[in-house]
Amino acid sequence: MAAFLKVVSGVYFASVWFAFFLTVSTPSPLTSISAPLGPNGSGIIAFAIAIGLSIPAVALFAFGQVVGDVRIMRNHVRMQSDHLQAMRAYYEPERHPRVRPLSCL
Q1: Statement: the pTM of the whole predicted model exceeds 0.90
Q2: What does 23-58 look like in DSSP terms, one character per residue?
Q3: Per-residue pLDDT of the chain (105 residues; tens, 9 = 90+)
């Protein structure tokens, strides 16, 4: 799931910036909106919109990273628990009787 979230956020992020570069490369007919910002006003507006639309992609990528890290931490905790159980069985044999594997029966 972590890889899926990262891929989806990457595709969304790339499409937002592709649309930004496509918008900047074409002449803008919206001169009345960008007139107060100067000759490159439409580029500034498009840049601000691209930044705003990129925030969800970054948040989704970060959530995907957290999901992956939590899975790794759970695996480490499980391994440590198994190791601790084996250590207790070795050093405290009277409290933790050894379980014979099924192949010995």
Answers
A1: no
A2: HHHSPPS-HHHHGGG-TTHHHHHHHHHHHHHHHHHH
A3: 788 988 999 999 999 999 998 888 876 665 555 555 555 667 788 888 999 999 999 999 999 999 889 989 999 999 999 898 888 888 877 765 666 655 655
